[in-house]
Write a structure and sequence with these properties.
9-stranded mixed β-sheet; 392 residues; Urease, subunit C, domain 1; 2 domains; 27% strand; TIM Barrel; 6-stranded parallel β-sheet; 11 helices
């Protein structure tokens, strides 16, 4: 058993001072005071000392097998290591492919999901990649979602981007319909994760597909909505009309100088405009490449996304934009859990998974618990990935 004492609980709504008891992988009790001496068996007691304590973060868009490659083979980014997630407070990841759906296979993606699970995280993935028709494992989107347990939807399908395969509206509608059906039959989310690029068409293809009336806007989860100002305006409108939108936290100063808006600033504006927190998520694009292209489409710079950018967004939203912690947390906890139908994730309550982040006074992860296991304790990695530290 694991007992967290003296936590200032954000569940993610503020819930005051509480003790939290975890047995095995689940939260079993939340009370003002729980005496460890009265528990049947050994207990690992962690004193939160009044620190803000929240659900484990959900990062719904991570290139867990690596990504990139837009600058040639040497620009393929590295895969996710366990502590890349846990040091960022991330206890649940959703893996995606991206530009490269050839050398980065779905089989490898699913295998990496299982590896991260064995190391202690909760992990899932999408079937498909940038291109349409989507690469699949079984040859069928519906079968992948129904028959491959970690697969919860399709994507990331690239639109409005020079790296997209330019799917027609009919092709896009078919992907969405098949993902929806696979989700219905399996009880999974069945959403389509959509990569949005800089091209002027923006969200228009999704609008045209949904205008027929048989597919709801919530069938899609468009990401990188903060890429440029015009796209951002359209994204807010999309959310007001019932869709979900996702802001990417990984960035570089050059992107911001070129017109990208930080995820924290996007959350602040969404709050100011009264946009429902149930419509907005933030993901890191972790391990994805952050390529810069010139006006001729030639790559001129490259960075790598990081799960830790979620922490940077949280801190910026509170310190710079004046949001309260409970106004920021849903975007990386309760809302992605709802959108992705991760039923035991995103909130701190009895019966939920034992995924907890204790934050220090600077809102950095102090202690991180995933499925009832302490991964980071007092800022130090307690559980490292299988091959972390093995390089010479």
């Amino acid at each position: 058993m694991l007992l967290i004492k003296n936590a200032t609980l954000y569940a993610p709504a503020p819930s005051g001072k509480n003790d939290i008891l975890i047995a095995g992988e689940r939260i079993v009790a939340i009370q003002e005071s729980i005496d460890p001496a009265g528990l049947p068996g050994p207990v690992d007691v962690i004193d939160a000392a009044g620190r803000a304590t929240a659900p484990g973060f959900i990062d719904g868009h991570v290139h867990i097998t690596g990504g990139g490659g837009e600058g040639g083979y040497r620009t393929r980014t590295p895969e996710l290591m366990l502590s890349d997630a846990t040091k960022a407070g991330v206890t649940t990841v959703v893996g995606v492919l991206g530009t490269d759906g050839v050398a980065r296979s779905l089989e490898a993606l699913v295998a990496k999901v299982y590896a991260l699970r064995e190391e202690g995280l909760s992990a899932y993935c999408y079937t498909g990649a940038y291109r349409v028709p989507l690469p699949t494992i079984t040859g069928d989107i519906i079968k992948d979602i129904m028959m491959i347990e970690p697969v919860i939807g399709a994507g990331e399908v690239a639109l409005s981007d020079h790296r997209s395969t330019k799917p027609t509206d009919a092709e896009l509608a078919r992907v969405a319909a098949e993902a929806r059906l696979g989700g219905m039959l399996s009880g999974k989310a069945g959403v389509v994760n959509v990569h949005l690029g800089d091209a002027p068409e923006g969200l228009s293809p999704l609008g045209r597909v949904c205008s027929r009336g048989d597919l709801p806007r919530a069938q899609f989860l468009p990401t990188h909505c903060n890429r440029n100002r015009e796209l951002l305006e359209r994204a807010y409108a999309w959310a007001r009309e019932g869709g979900y939108i996702d802001f990417t936290s990984s960035t570089v100063q050059a992107f911001l100088d070129d017109g990208e808006t930080s995820a924290a600033a996007c959350l602040a504006r969404a709050r100011a405009e009264g946009l429902s927190a149930e419509r907005v998520t933030v993901t890191s694009d972790g391990q994805g490449s952050l390529p810069r292209f010139d006006d001729k489409g030639v790559m001129v710079g490259l960075g790598v996304g990081s799960c830790y950018s979620l922490v940077d967004t949280l801190r910026e939203a509170v310190a710079k934009h004046g949001l309260r912690l409970e106004e920021v947390l849903p975007a990386i906890t309760a809302t992605p859990a709802k959108v992705l139908k991760l039923g035991r994730k995103g909130t701190v309550a009895p019966g939920m998974d034992g995924d907890i982040v204790i934050l220090d006074q600077d809102l950095r992860p102090h202690t991180v618990i995933a499925r009832g296991r302490v991964m980071l304790r007092a800022g130090e990695v307690e559980v490292a990935g299988t091959f972390e530290g093995e390089r010479r």
